[in-house]
Known about the structure:
The complex is a heterotrimer of chains A (265), B (271) and C (313).
Chain A: E1 4-15, E2 22-33, E3 37-41, H1 48-55, E4 64-72, E5 75-76, H2 82-88, E6 93-96, H3 110-114, H4 116-121, H5 127-140, H6 146-151, H7 159-171, E7 177-181, H8 189-206, E8 209-214, H9 217-223, E9 226-231, E10 234-240, H10 241-246, H11 251-258
Helix pairs in contact in A: 5-7, 7-8
Chain B: H1 2-10, H2 14-35, H3 68-104, H4 106-120, H5 124-135, H6 139-166, H7 169-176, H8 181-217, H9 229-236, H10 244-269
Chain C: H1 2-27, H2 33-38, H3 44-54, H4 60-72, H5 86-91, H6 94-121, H7 126-140, H8 143-157, H9 173-207, H10 210-217, H11 222-259, H12 265-274, H13 278-306
Amino acid sequence: MAETILEVKDFGIEFHDHDRPERVVEHVDFSLQKGEILGIVGESGSGKSMTALAIAGLLPRKKLRKEGQILFLGEDLMTMERKKLRSLQGDEISMIFQEPMTALNPTMRVGMQVEEALRIHHPEVSAEERKRRALAWLKNVEMDDPERVYEAYPHELSGGMRQRVMIAAAMVGNPQLLIADECTTALDVTVQAQIIRLLLEINQKEQVSVLFISHDLSLIRQISHRVIVMQLGHIVEQGDVEQIFNAPQEEYTKHLIAAIPQVVL
Amino acid sequence: MKTIREWIKKHRNFNFFAGAGITSLILLVALVGIFYTPYASTEMNAAAKNAAPSLQHIMGCDNYGRDIFSRVMEGIRNTFFISLATVAIGTFAGILVGSVCGYFGGLPDDILMRVNDALFAFPSILLALVIISLLGTGTINVVLALGIAFIPSFARIVRSEYKKQVTLDYVQSARLMGAGHLRLIFVHILPNIVPVLLSSVMIGFNNAVLAEAGLSYLGIGVQPPEASLGRMLSEAQSYLFTAPWYALFPGLVIVLMVLGFALLAEGMTEE
Amino acid sequence: MKHYGKKLIAMLLTLLGVSFIVFAAFEIIPGDPALSKLGDNATPEALAALRAQMGLDRPFLLRYLDWLGDCLKGNLGESYSYHMPVIRMIGDKLPITLTMTILSMLLTLLISVPAGVLLSKYAYSKFDRAGYVANQFLMAIPSFFLGILLTWFFGLILKWFTPGGYVSYKKDFWAFLSYLFLPSIAIAIPKCAMSIKLLRSAILAEADKDYVRTAYSRGNSTMEVLYRHVLKNAMIPLVTFWGMAVADTIAGSIVVEQVFNIPGLGRILLTSISHRDYPVVEAVILLIAFVVVLMNFIVDLLYRRLDPRMRKG
């Protein structure tokens, strides 16, 4: 039996920003196995990104109430001490974001940002070794000239290159879980395809589990082993990718699938 | 009227009210000072030399026994009107130069902006000093000097706003409708840069108050026996030990004047 | 490298423009330099001879070029009232004003950066609110009034120093420096308040950006995010502000010199203005403008070091 990396149990989020508390995520249950790619699909406001941020430990603590459990390798991230949580972030759990243009620090060299996770979590690794691993990962994400990219600043790279830098930076610590939140949305179609292929390759080679969040069903279909459909903070349906796309049970899912533009590939 | 009320509603915040309160108090004192001061500002009283604040002289008396409060009232009035005139000159000329440069661009713009850059190397109070050294002292010359010294910074702001606006659609369509250059510059674009202009005018007013006070502190602003806040401070310095209130009150009034306007400006830009 | 060359040329052009403005301004002075040199009861023949000797009968542009050449050789003319070379009069005053300017710029940096960081860390708390009020107040105080208050409090009440007890840097450098400390504080504090306010809001604006979230996702602590990522980005607008503050600081030291009775450039400028000693006024103004342009050039280089997006090619 495969090892369970992530288990989310009866998870919910309530906003306390306004006068009336607002529930944005409710009764979310799912699990993720080692080496599996789980797609979460839904429209904006479905709570998919909120859930992803919660798992990455990036939701603000104020004005927000969370319930349920998020078990990572059996330990609850929600009740975990902050310091312990930090030791997992970037090392065991990594995340890549939607906007590659702004997700990188504009005044820090790309190389420094790629190796930052190593610097934080593995101070025992020497500087040369850090650089070697960063360059290896820049090569893994198919950079033509890793040395040049290592010395470059983010504004000198294209959007697709920056997103690949983000992937390299996320993977450099060999995490168990990679969360990709709408990571291809801001890119054009050909670059999207490259990134998807890259993520599939990395998943195969490194056996990293991926939580792939998108509003784009065709991308979800290409990449996922299993799929969760979310709407208004609830899970509508979950199952294997074939089952969801070929035999959807719920009206909402059928609706979404019917709305995919038909492109003959 | 409705828009004004809405505007006030939107900007109802602490800064706005505190600033408006302080500024209207200062304005009130300045206006009253035109018609009435408790004592004549130049009336000397040998018996009250360096008198401490009391019920008769709420801010005390200076080294000639003149009532400090009366002199402060007159000083506020002078500073206020000088700063107002200064900002008026700076704004008016700044709009003229800046709008033409920003609207037309090209070689005249390049040349004028080069000159502007060079002028920027002179701190405005220094520029005013030079101009006064050429024109001679006196209230009118102070206004002229400060006004001229403030033109570059206004022109720069106006120019960059015009540069932005010229590319916008409404300007293009007005041009297609046959609006001439002058009409475009003053009727179409000018109203759109008023918000930016307003806040720089308010900051400019504060800089004018500080510069005027600085000049008269250095003895080249308003000439005696006319009272001025800056000169009072420089005179007070010799009596700092025996009559600290002489320095304190005029100084605090300058601070309040600047503070009130700064808060007002901040409150108006705050959402 | 090519870029620095371009900047250097732009700076030299600005300096040229500055010198031209100064020269032109003093050309339109009503009055005759020859007359002011010889006095009212000079004979017309003597005046004409002096004019020819001073080159006043030559065309404007030629005289400008001559003057510029003289300036470059260090010959800034001769004072009307003291009959000595201007360069000798201002040469040993410049270090005083310059020291004050540099000291107050340093104080501004050293105080405002930690204070701005501290305020942003406790943003929206009571402490932050108190800091805001204090800042607004300090920004509104003219530096010469602050100087008077400092003299009164530290000089007359606490008697920590003797007001007016300036010591020349040639005599005792450390006493000189310690006397300049309070005036520099007086100049620095209003600028400091502005920097603090600016830095606080810049840090808060940066903290909302996406790269900060990325930094947290790598396991950085709040402190590490602040010092390793946010601060450098937040400093970029600050450097621009400091660049503009240089000119104000020099102007401020000219005024504050009077408060503390320091015989720097300000003193010379004011006496020569009241004596209508134009060569001296001209030289001081030129010198100050040169210092401002030079400082701005340095700030610009710094800016480029800080913000890689400004470094092109």
